[in-house]
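Researcher: Can you fold this with fe (ii) ion in place?
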Amino acid sequence: MAKIIAGIGTSHTPAIGAAVDNGKMGEPYWVPLFKGYEPAKKWMADTNPDVVIMVYNDHVNAFDFKIIPTFALGCADEFKIADEGWGARPVPVVKGYPELASHMIQSLVLDEFDMTIVNEMQVDHGLTTPMSLLFGQPKAWPCRVIPLAVNVIQYPAPTGHRCYMLGKAIKKAVEDWDEDLKVVIFGTGGMSHQIQGPRAGLVNKEFDKAFLDGLSGDPERLSRISPLEYLRDAGAEAIELVMWLIMRGALGENVKEAYRFYHVPASSTAVGHIILESA
Ligand SMILES: [Fe+2]
């Protein structure tokens, strides 16, 4: 049986990927951030998952405004790296797992989640930055990756509660797959941040801490945070945090917090990171 053994929450700020690609990790601005991810990289190397389910959002690279799927599951053999305007990141191509992804589609649609099947897709920093943070700079990524792109760019994004319920359905789908696989699921984006308008640069440390605390202790409460509350309390782009609730829903009731890291700022965002092991 395949099993989701852990969940990872992490920001996916593009500047982090650029710092990796341009050899800036040793610069004073970036040292504290990358130091904070060192224990997480070790955890990942020790855990050595077979498959990663990467919940992230596309930033108008794979999907333009002609088609905006709410939940899009990548079913391809591989996913090329998107050129986001300054050339594709020099990171390995992402190898998918079409058989498992197709199984997940079937299970999720029969469980009444209207997934979009994506057979060809490029992946942007939303997916590749977390890969770099947790896996470093290998020649090839050490596991297969199933991308789950969530629309948090164009109003209306799915609610936190809908995401949490989708996570629960993903857990069921994975456990129905008859192959011994260690699966780690990522929820990416966030934490508090706003990149435009008069409130640009907004960070709310109290909100972020309460969110990190709630992931282990009270995810049901987090799942009831409304879109307006994210916007008001944590900035326009904090809605990305609903993707962490997909991750949390996929872990089952009890989890053990294995690691946490919080750092302000990276670019203009609050960077949060948590590792939750399924009990
Ligand atoms: Fe993002």
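Model: Folded with fe (ii) ion in place. The chain has a mean pLDDT of 97.
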